[in-house]
Amino acid sequence: MRKLKAVVIGTGLIGKQHAESIMRTPYVELAAISDPVHNLLEKEAGRLGVEGFECYREMIDKVRPDVVHNCTPNNLHFEINKYVLERGIHLYSEKPLAVTIEEGEELVRLAREKGVANGVNFNYRHNATVQQMRCLFQSGEAGRPLLIHGRYIQDWLLYPEDFNWRVVAGEGGHSRALADIGSHWFDTVQAVTGKKIAAVHADNFTVHPERGTGHRVDTEDGSVVVMKFDDGTVGNLVVSQVSAGYKNNFDISLDCQKYSLRWNQEQSDRLRIGTREEGVREIYTGEEFLANSIKRYATIPSGHPVGWADAMTNAVREFYASIQDGSYTCPQNLSYSDFANAVDIMKIVEACMESSRSGEWVGV
Question: What's the whole-model pTM score?
């Protein structure tokens, strides 16, 4: 296999995770990183043993990478993604793809025009247990879905003194909780079921009108969303970043005619199957329990918990594998989210925002 050269823009939490996942991926070299904050850049470049650049343009033009990972704040995504695509470089971006749907659609067109691999990091679908849930559900063994429901709730913005750049619409976009964490649930449920969310009825809420040192809050702390899928199945989702004691509680349940399939990110190495006759049994993530088509997602033996970082690495590996074998040119066969899917998720979030404003059902 040809050795691929990768660079990462951004050295925050998610940038560090992209770098680690690249370094865990065979036939890929992390060549450089960039960040405009000198002390952060110097520290991270030293830790990783790679060259650091304060300007991402200088890095790209000098290193000439095969792949760029964009791990910057939301309001920088469009500018950087467009710069990378215009140079015909493969691109793996953090979500959202851009702040507005119009910007996202422009990037979709540009990626197609340039013929490059394009991915957006919705990593939860790449957990081995989630992949097993997808295989079981789509086999039809569980029967027709009766209800699809879940939640994604956290507590990191519980108090009024809690503040982060995502709170301000000018930096994170006009949606926060739905765009930040609700989008992951929307992507995962659609990837698992193969069904599209067709309409939503959402009620957003904001509990603190001001945060930190007098920053006005113009984004939502959470939402309760009722939805209809394209086959008529109904569902609901609770999203919150102000729920005490919940750290990263991502939960999805597919309640079908014969049994339910349940997965929770905080116990991400097991799939729960619920029946009326026998209650609930658990299947652990291990190669011996997985369908042949997804055994590659199980990187360690059963009983060794498979977690968030493993799903992140799986996502990155799937992206690079598509470059190596050329399958990125067949979007319908991709296991990861491409730019077009990322725009679809943005449209679901936008429909939720419109529904909350109007109090009406809104089609996606």
Answer: 0.94
